[in-house]
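A further point concerns the way the authors explain their paired sequence and structure data. Each protein is reduced to its one-letter sequence and a matching series of backbone shape codes. An entry of this sort, consisting of the sequence and the corresponding backbone structure tokens, reads as follows:
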Amino acid sequence: MSRSPRVVIADEHPTMRASARRLLERDGFTVCGEAADADGAVEAAFRERPDLCLIGMPIPGGGMWATARIATALPQTAVVILTASESHLVDATRAGAVGSLLKGMNEEQLASAFRGVLAGEAAI
């Protein structure tokens, strides 16, 4: 029996974190940590060593900083940003994110993108 993928969710909005948690848990992921800012995202990722770290943009303390820190220190953790603006896509890739997803995607698209990232695919 394989374990479910472990995820840290970082977003400044509690409602967004709760929605992401429901979606991910419904689709077989285990949410092992949550954070409301960049420092908390890095702390949770370092503590939990998740398979995937989902970082909402913008996030207090600097989402690109958190992305780069996690991607550099934890290469086994796939970092995906979730943003309302396409303007973050290039910067996120430069910071080490393996994917950038738009907040307007439907739940099925998001779950499929997360599974693809864990299979080694880029999510854009």
User: Anything to note?
Assistant: Residues 14-26 form the longest helix (13 residues). Strands lie at 6-10, 30-35, 52-57, 78-83, 99-102.
